[in-house]
C-alpha cells in the first residue's frame, strides 16, 4: 500500500462527514466563542493518540506475541463491522454528555476521531512495514488534516450537504470501507495459508 492509499483508507475510517451530525449535537450546547477552541483541542488530542499508537504498535504486537496475519484478519473484521454500521446506522445517542457539558477527550477525540478501528489500522500498518514509518506518519497527517478541515468547517458542510447529503456520503464511505476491509481479510487469510503450507 502506498502513502496516498493509506491516507485514503485512514480518512474513510475516520469518517469526518459521518461524525458531523454528532459533533453538531455536542457543540450546539457550548458557547459559540468556545466551539472552535474545543474543536482544535480535541483534534490535537486525537492526533497525539494516533501518533503514539502508530509508533508503539509494533511493540504492542511483540508484547502480545501476535502475528501479522492475525492482526490483518482482525482489522478486516473490525473495519467490516464499522462499515456495516456506516451503511446501516442504528438508532440511539452516542455522546453520553449532559446538555452544556464541554467534551474532554471523550467522545470527540476518542472514539469519534481516534476510534478503535483507526487504531487497529495504524497497528496493522506499523506491523506490515515497520521500515516505512515516515510514510505512515505522512498518511496519518494527510487523513487527519483532511478530517480536521471538514470538522472545523462543520457548519458550512452541514448547510451545503444537508442531513440527507451527509447520510448519503457516509453510506458511500461505508461501501468503500467494506471493500477495503474484505481485501484486508483476504490478504490475512492468504498470508496465513502461505505460512501454514
TrEMBL record:
Entry keyword annotation includes Transmembrane: yes
InterPro entries: Multi_antbiot-R_MarC
Topology with respect to the bilayer: Multi-pass membrane protein
Cellular component terms per the entry's GO annotation: plasma membrane
Keywords (A to Z) from UniProt: Cell membrane, Membrane, Transmembrane, Transmembrane helix
Family assignment from sequence similarity: Belongs to the UPF0056 (MarC) family.
Organism in which the protein naturally occurs: Aeromonas simiae
NCBIfam families: PRK10739.1
The protein's name: UPF0056 membrane protein
Chief site of localization: membrane
Transmembrane segments: 6-27, 43-64, 70-88, 104-126, 138-157, 169-186
A family per Pfam: MarC
Localization: Cell membrane
